[in-house]
Amino acid sequence: MPAISQRLIFILAGIALAIAALFWITGALTGGKRAKVEAELNGNRADAAASSGADAVNTVGDRHAAETDIDRKVQDAQGNIISATDAAGADRAGRDGLCSVAAHFCPDRKLHHTHP
What does each C-alpha distance from 68 to 28, 65, 74, 101, 104 come to in angstroms? Predict the structure, then answer.
């Protein structure tokens, strides 16, 4: 009877070793693929982060340029209002300045202000 139980132990140990070997071989074969996929995902993540950062920089730059342009138009309008010789001229300068900042304030006027 002890021989049978010893034989059974060897069979179970062999099966356990075979299962462990199967897991090890499967891991070895797919481990390279997994590492490749993870590297590709990390690369894509880095590319997305760089692209997002570039977009943010461009947005801030565009916003700054737009704000600078509006500030220049407001200063021009203020200068024109101050240098007007009468109330009608100041009113016209104020309206022209407002229209140059935002054309939707003057839908009935076709103003094409171009500033370099």
Answer: 60, 5, 10, 12, 20
